Amino acid sequence: MPTYNPPLRDMQFVMHEVLNVVDELKEIPRHADVDTDTLNAVIEEGGKFASQVLQPLNLSGDTEGCVLDKTTHEVKTPTGFKDAYAQYVEGGWAALSCDPEYGGQGLPIVANQCVYEMLNSANQAWTMYPGLSHGAYEALHAHGTPEQKKKYLPKLTSGEWTGSMCLTEPHCGTDLGLLRSKAEPVGDGTYKITGNKIFISAGEHDMASNILHLVLARLPDAPKGSKGISLFLVPKFHVNDDESLGERNPVFCTGLEHKMGIHGNSTAQLSLEGAVGTLVGEPNKGLQAMFVMMNAARLGVGNQSLGLTEVAYQNALIYAKDRLQMRSLSGPKAKDQPADPIIVHPDVRKMLLTAKAYAEGGRAMSIYCAMLLDKALYHPDEKVRKDSDELVALLTPIVKAFLTDNGFAATNHAMQVFGGHGYIHETGMEQYVRDARINMIYEGTNTVQSLDLLGRKILGNQGATLKKFGKLIAALVQEEGVNEKMSEFINPLGYLADQMTKFTTEIGFKGFINPDEVGGASVDYLRVAGHLVFGYFFARMASVALKKQAEGSTDPFYTAKLQTARFYFARLFPETASLMRTARSGVANLLETDEALA
Amino acid sequence: MPTYNPPLRDMQFVMHEVLNVVDELKEIPRHADVDTDTLNAVIEEGGKFASQVLQPLNLSGDTEGCVLDKTTHEVKTPTGFKDAYAQYVEGGWAALSCDPEYGGQGLPIVANQCVYEMLNSANQAWTMYPGLSHGAYEALHAHGTPEQKKKYLPKLTSGEWTGSMCLTEPHCGTDLGLLRSKAEPVGDGTYKITGNKIFISAGEHDMASNILHLVLARLPDAPKGSKGISLFLVPKFHVNDDESLGERNPVFCTGLEHKMGIHGNSTAQLSLEGAVGTLVGEPNKGLQAMFVMMNAARLGVGNQSLGLTEVAYQNALIYAKDRLQMRSLSGPKAKDQPADPIIVHPDVRKMLLTAKAYAEGGRAMSIYCAMLLDKALYHPDEKVRKDSDELVALLTPIVKAFLTDNGFAATNHAMQVFGGHGYIHETGMEQYVRDARINMIYEGTNTVQSLDLLGRKILGNQGATLKKFGKLIAALVQEEGVNEKMSEFINPLGYLADQMTKFTTEIGFKGFINPDEVGGASVDYLRVAGHLVFGYFFARMASVALKKQAEGSTDPFYTAKLQTARFYFARLFPETASLMRTARSGVANLLETDEALA
């Protein structure tokens, strides 16, 4: 069975040495008191919960799965899940970064980001239950009426109740404009909702006493398409004025999906049979309200793959040092053993370092995004709020798609290090691959993310936000340009940043003439953008490590960081050369293929 | 549930229009009578068997899996597997390319290659049972004593009995030199074999009345390491002189692995408890004897992924035309529908075309290799036999690794086209991904293949065999160099062929100084070599298609082939640019990482 060791040192490095989050948070009144010790204590305790409580349930949860009782419509989660959730609520983890007005601890999102990475490493399927709840919390917090907030937010904050996102229907996922669920006004301000939803993660379970479903449906006479969709709050059990639970609402789980992975999470088919709900946000503007939840969820999905990347890497590393097989090509290394540990082989190291670099780059980028979210929400300067919001909007599709593509590659590499043993369920490595696979699909496929990035976030404002990020890179290049030790990192980064401007303009121009050109380039473009961001953070991390060494530090952590950055620029970053070439090849080689795809 | 339509037209195109196999076979006396109609009839019937008998058992076989009765040590295969196997034997499929001396039909390996591709498309897990048997047939045919051949080959040929390859032990897979199973001479020419084997595909099942295990073990006083391993034939049931089955031999299945995929195949843990066997080949030269089987198996594994690539592509194509979701970026295409079919989206096409190009390139390469095997075995000219043997030895690790890496990418793309529905078991798409994953591991991991290619097959003879393949490319470039319509295919191919020589020399030189440099470059090198081979075959196929069109053909098949070739060169082939860059980055960025991998 896999093990898990929370990467506290690397999180602390990113927070305190690279991003200086405590200083940044000091500018935000509600986080001004957050200090290094507090953040370190939170992640240390979070790491204990993840590794001691959740990790032991991951493999068994996969084996056991969820079970639906078709007569009661109740779902039993795998053994131990319910108890672990009770401990989670008891420990106050659900409330960590929630609003104190509703009982939250009010800690910055940066803290939550690190804790969630560890929960995901330990058990992605389990973590989806509180993860979806937190998304529901955010949507209600942003768009709920004062009555809804008062009635529901405290229990979502504490975690006593959970939430779900009910978007998908059998005939529509990406294209929510097609959805058919109906909401009929009852006349008392409530609505009766009827329809069938599928793929509802954490849609039914036995871990909390109530579930608050956020449901997309159409009002009578709503405009067609995506402009006629409204958002409703549909509780599993109605809530009485004294906060006790009332009648069961007819929103029933009618089936659970048999999936490739995340078996421990119940993926429910829900039948709404005149279930009573209340409107969240304005009529016909449900998608806007839901987008709050979806943006958070997209960063959350990237974080799931970051977690899997880290834990898969850790276990592959242990195995590579332990497994004796063949000799090094340059002569025996473990002469007293019958064979060398497989970590002597260059390609085994390449697979390990790929996973490690993806984890470390992803961690830096994700914590950076969390810090931007903290600023976007509560920084006193409006311009900082706006800039932060725009930057995180730009980075969100990259986090979602780049980190999940990387996570799939990384978990596959980690599994490959195990050879045939990686294919066996009991080692736990193939589960990481199966679990990681969904992250490339849900909350908007990675193709959809690439169109969001290139079409909306970049070309949609003539590259203005991209230029903001470009300025950060330019500043770093200028600062470090004369530092010879940094040249191996700064040169390729600066070169790609220069190319990126031209590359973007080119595609923008082609897309202006033929919009399909954007769709023909976007997936490759997103990966190039991902490397630009990773390159920026690896250069910053390398710069910090070099400074520490110059100051006399002999901590092997900094040597390790430099080795990983060097590997990253030499072995992963050059992928951009081919990606730019294929992205530039034009859409005709995809669209003029009717006979080939006949 | 997925469907499957045998790609007969494309197989016929490769065999008859590109490779002219009938003409090539005319030079081989035992195949001189094989004509186009015979080959077409064989693959047509094979396709029917695959699509009608095996395909319907694929998803159910995955769901049901194999069950071991721990008291009897007998394994029950999924419902329908045994009946399908009886039909397979009855239809004479097992005997297709076997030696007529032992009851075989004596058809060329080219025919078997096409049939096996289709069997693999329909049901990889099932196909492994006859596949392993055929490997055992080949090893016995090459290395068995006359008595062994007489006693066992007829039943292996007919398929009444099956075979297995018993190599792996818990502590050794790649490094067979470490194996511990022991063989004690009894004194009557037989041996008592004791040991534990794991990961034995088709190692125990209910589909045949007897199983012939080919077992690697050590004789007393055998030299240490890989030079002290001998090969033994250990039947599940002893065979009496009258060919009836005798006593049960103590080779027992003690467990079945729980695997990521290929659930329909029984992956057995075998305990040999003084099981009686006979020596195959010479003492201590078991690895050489087993290599016959392993080389065939490596081509067979590439063929498994080719099969999965094709069937996954077919189903994704159907879905992409059927699923309505969003509008084309360049305006609605299906105006009478609520949304466009997703095939209008450039990236969906890219995913489909990637799978299609990998299937078609893989098919051409695999049939070519089969033809080389036919020549290597029975061509009357010794030089042709030798050249063919060397060329297929060069191509074998490429087929194994390149086709299985491609197959994993292709099945993942096909699954991605299904969006969330691809993650659901019942659509069958995620099974293709899980099944395809093992192909990158077993019969020598893809890293091992890359070392075999670069270290042994290329640098081992100073690039002599590679030069032979290079001559084929040079001839094509010369022939087509003046044909303007071919320039989009020939130019990049010729350019890569030129670079390849320099690239190989460089690595060879670095490897001479530090052997680890070979291990640091080999995986990227193999993918470049794979594209060189695919590029060659796509150029040849494009050349044929252009000629047919010049002759007046309006068959959309040729238009399709040109579109696929164009896509291949524009979108997949350019990967070589990055691969050469990373391969050239040197092994230091992998090996000087002790702190990073601490």
Automatic annotation (TrEMBL), chains A, B:
Annotated keywords: FAD, Flavoprotein, Oxidoreductase
Cofactor: FAD
Residue intervals of the Acyl-CoA dehydrogenase/oxidase C-terminal domain: 284-451
Alphabetical list of InterPro entries matching this protein: Acyl-CoA_dh-like_C_dom (IPR025878), Acyl-CoA_Oxase/DH_mid-dom (IPR006091), Acyl-CoA_Oxase/DH_mid-dom_sf (IPR046373), AcylCo_DH-like_C (IPR036250), AcylCo_DH/oxidase_C (IPR009075), AcylCoA_DH/ox_N (IPR013786), AcylCoA_DH/ox_N_sf (IPR037069), AcylCoA_DH/oxidase_NM_dom_sf (IPR009100)
Keyword Oxidoreductase: yes
SUPFAM superfamilies: Acyl-CoA dehydrogenase C-terminal domain-like (SSF47203), Acyl-CoA dehydrogenase NM domain-like (SSF56645)
Keyword Oxidoreductase: yes
Residue ranges of every copy of the Acetyl-CoA dehydrogenase-like C-terminal domain listed in the record: 472-593
The Acyl-CoA dehydrogenase/oxidase N-terminal domain, residue ranges: 82-160
Domain of life from the UniProt record: Bacteria
Domain Acyl-CoA oxidase/dehydrogenase middle: 164-273
Gene3D superfamilies: Acyl-CoA dehydrogenase/oxidase, N-terminal domain, Butyryl-CoA Dehydrogenase, subunit A, domain 2, Butyryl-CoA Dehydrogenase, subunit A, domain 3
Entry similarity comment: Belongs to the acyl-CoA dehydrogenase family.
Name the UniProt record assigns to this protein: Alkylation response protein AidB-like acyl-CoA dehydrogenase
Organism field: Ottowia thiooxydans
